[in-house]
Amino acid sequence: MRILVTNDDGVYADGLWALVRELSKVGEVTVVAPDREQSGSGTAVSLSKPLRASKIRAPVEGISAYAVEGTPGDATILALHALIEEPVDAVVSGINLGSNVGNDTLISGTVGAALQGYSNGVFSLAVSLGTMIDPNFDTAARLAAIFVESRARGELEGELFLNLNLPHLPLEEIQGLGVFPLGGDSYLDTVEEQIDRRGRQLFHINRGTAAPDPAEGTDVWAVRQGYAVLTPLRPGPFGDEPWSELNGLAKRLWRRLIEKPQSAAG
Ligand code: MN
Asked: What is the CA(97)–ligand 1 centre distance, in A?
């Protein structure tokens, strides 16, 4: 398996390297990611400016890593069409600090980077963790590796664009891995106003409070209930009934995670 790891939190983000450590047990990993945080940049691609990619010293030994002066989508495109010579088998984007559920999935740079993998015919998975503080990426990283391993074994076939969200809970408190559709809720509902030193207005768009009552059965609801949530962003080979087939697979992969001994890194 040749695996591209990218993100929208920037090439030095801990969530990305947690993913690299687990995925390098499954295949050959190359990192190509934005040189700085690009959260909320969605599917943006830089068509009107040239882009620079610089090789960086990776915090994990033996991994080639590039920092791209561009969006998450740019990073994936450069990786697939310029920086990695051999064909890539999987694009994994994350692990994002903060959930990407509901309508906000559509502005997520984590998902935007994975979209470019999918658009280029590569199996693509976006991974997010539901916390902004003191993250423990271990379970999310291990589950992502199980997905890629399952892809390598031929259990996850076809053109797939998957969004995976984990609640920030100890493994034994997570309700399991379920398949849920995108909800309609958004967290970007507050604007903070400030006056700058010259007396002019400044605005900050913030992550607001979570929707108090998300619709039952949606990804927003499920992650709140303590489920790890898998959402196919395109139906792939599952046709009109993606849920039941993918649900069976999700259950099998979750069992594999539970039965697998925890990595020493913790
Ligand atoms: Mn982010």
From this structure: 6
How close is the Cα of 155 to the center of ligand 1, in Å? 29
CA 199 to ligand 1 center in whole angstroms: 31
Is 227 buried (19+), middle (13-18) or exposed (0-12) by CB count in 10 A?
A: buried
CB atoms within 10 A of CB 125: 26
Q: How many DSSP H helices and E strands does the chain contain?
A: 6, 11
Cα(177) to centroid(ligand 1), Å: 22
Distance CA 229, CA 251 (A): 11
Binned at pLDDT 50, 70 and 90, residue 240 comes out as low
Distance from Cα 166 to the centre of ligand 1, integer Å: 14
Name which of 265, 181, 172, 161 is nearest 223 in CA terms.
181
Please give the pLDDT value at position 241.
Answer: 59
Centre of ligand 1 from the C-alpha of residue 3, in Å: 20
Query: In the predicted model, is pLDDT for residue 197 greater than 70?
Result: yes
Instruction: Reply yes or no on whether the pLDDT at 29 is more than 60.
Output: yes
Question: Which pLDDT band holds residue 266 (cuts at 50, 70, 90)?
Answer: very low
CA distance 73 to 45: 6
Three-state DSSP at 110 gives helix
Name the DSSP class of 213. Answer: S
pLDDT at 174: 97
Neighbours of 79 (CB within 10 A): 27
51-65, 70-84, 178-192, 237-251: least confident range: 237-251
